[in-house]
Write a structure and sequence with these properties.
Helix content is 69%, strand content 0%. The protein contains 15 helices and no strands. Helix 6 runs antiparallel to helix 7.
Length: 306
């Protein structure tokens, strides 16, 4: 009697076949890359990467495993072909497959947005827009990622060629906003805030530029960074405004340490110093003619006692 195949054993068999196919394709790709690196005369690309729909079905539930294999192959493919000074036109197919299989994986979004601009050896508008699309998708999953914000700002401000004046305005505004958000993240370099203020000021958003620098001056912990932001604020407003902002920071630090040193400084910025309630005056309440207490007391006395 033949052993009966269960759905589980069938799925495992399909998964093993799919992984074997990926392994064979990977081995062939490595051989082709080595040939190109060695100076083979035939630079034509014969690589094939299945589309996201095929990968999702072929993975038979082992999506992260297949995504890991594709990730390794993408790194090898990019490194070997790029080092051999050949185009890497299949790179975006690798990235699309990985993101379809593992949409919550952060690294492929940022890495993909960085390396797709090297597919043809010279940055094109299509590659810049493709890079921006990966960053938009990544920020939809990781909205507080400062690195992706900054890179998207660079794509908007310097790399994408606007199709018309309206798109140019849209890209400049989004780039400035992305820079401002990235500069506010903990550990962000000082020049991010300076660049954000410069772009905002150029776009006619001077108040936002001043606000961004003031916030950085308030949160800067070392004197070197504070000196940078004081100088930037003096250029945007005045020397007196920079000095006053530094004094405001000193008052903030004193209030924070005096009233709530157990809170993070960023949280204390939102909450502020606790309000001081006036002492409760019992006699004033009892003597208040607008709210006489005697009728209430009489009602209490008249309540039946069980």
């Amino acid at each position: 009697m033949k052993p009966r195949r269960t759905p589980t054993s069938t799925a495992v068999a399909l998964a093993l076949l799919a992984l074997l196919g990926f392994a064979l394709a990977a081995d062939w790709t490595r051989g082709r890359a080595n040939q190109l690196a060695a100076g083979a005369r035939d630079p034509r690309e014969h690589l094939y990467v299945p589309g996201p729909e095929v990968l999702l079905r072929a993975s038979v539930g082992y999506r992260e495993l297949v995504a890991d294999l594709l990730w390794i192959r993408a790194l090898v493919y990019f490194g070997q072909y790029f080092d051999a000074k050949h185009d890497v036109p299949w790179l975006e197919h690798y990235i699309d497959g990985i993101l379809a299989l593992a949409p919550m994986w952060r690294e492929p979004y940022f890495w993909g947005a960085s390396v797709v601009t090297y597919q043809s050896g010279q940055l094109t508008d299509r590659e810049a827009r493709l890079s921006a699309s990966y960053l938009e998708r990544g920020l939809a999953r990781y909205p507080d990622d400062a690195q992706m914000m900054f890179l998207l700002a660079m794509r908007d401000l310097t790399d994408i060629t606007p199709r018309d004046a309206a798109e140019r305005e849209k890209l400049r505004v989004r780039g400035a906003e992305m820079l401002g958000h990235a500069a506010r993240r903990p550990g962000a370099p000082a020049h991010w805030a300076q660049l954000a203020a410069k772009v905002l000021n150029e776009e006619g958003r001077r108040e936002l530029a001043i606000s961004a620098i003031r916030e950085q001056l308030l949160n800067a912990e070392d004197e070197a960074r504070r000196a940078v932001f004081r100088k930037e604020l003096a250029k945007l407003e005045s020397e007196a405004a920079a000095v006053e902002a530094d004094r405001e920071r000193t008052r903030f630090i004193e209030g924070w340490k005096r009233t709530a040193p157990y809170l993070p400084a960023t949280l204390f910025t939102l909450l502020g110093e606790p309000a001081t309630a006036p002492p409760f005056d019992v006699d004033a309440v009892l003597d208040d003619p607008a709210h006489p207490i005697e009728p209430v007391l009489r009602e209490v006395d008249e309540l039946p006692v069980e």
